[in-house]
Design brief:
Spore Coat Polysaccharide Biosynthesis Protein SpsA, Chain A, eight-stranded mixed beta sheet, alpha/beta, 9 helices
Amino acid sequence: MKVCLNLSGQIRLSENESLLDKIEYLKKFIYFDRIYMHVWKKDYLKYKTQIHQIQNAKVIIVDVPDIDKKFFYPNSTKIITPYPNKERDYVCEFYALQCVFQESNLEDNDIHIRCRYDSIFTKQLNLNALSDYLLKEEPVAIVPMGGDWHYGLGNVFYVMNKSAAWLMKSILFDVYKMCKSGIPFHPESLLRAHLKNYNDVRIYRMSFPVMINQNNFYFNETYLGDCIVEDKLKFISEYLQ
């Protein structure tokens, strides 16, 4: 069972932490055979020396996209969004995800783990406990419990089998189609709609606390303990008629 870690987004590190320190930190909590790193060009120029020291890594270096407001932005396309000031960040987020999943899908990886550079963990991810779910032929995604903003699905950390990861390689283009159909332009809302409404992915939830931005819990510890439960909810909100 080959496991890859897909890192994407801006490289944000704790005070006095190097990028090499961060990779070693991630290894303590997550088992993976190979790492795929989406890196914005400005971050690559800053961390280039360290990046080339990371073993078993594939680095995807891209510029921040030149976003066509007429194509993506809600004020021009009538797309609904809860946070109009965040729309450019959301486009960049989905573009980064698409870049890293396109690369990880090119090689023979059985399990794909989505993670941000600024994620902080409180316990190890037990992949053995998830293997029965992740080795299914049908698309499966396992997401920590919590973070389901705007009726969505927590999107800063999740684990996917091969067939679910395949659905992420065109996520930016799929987002635009979903928004045109009435899904709000919001990461958590779009992730649930993409996985459940449009692709009927089997979603399971686990208790796995994750902090971002150094001290803010995105996924909290929950009542689940070691249990894995299925999440059958589709995306529905007040925005949809």
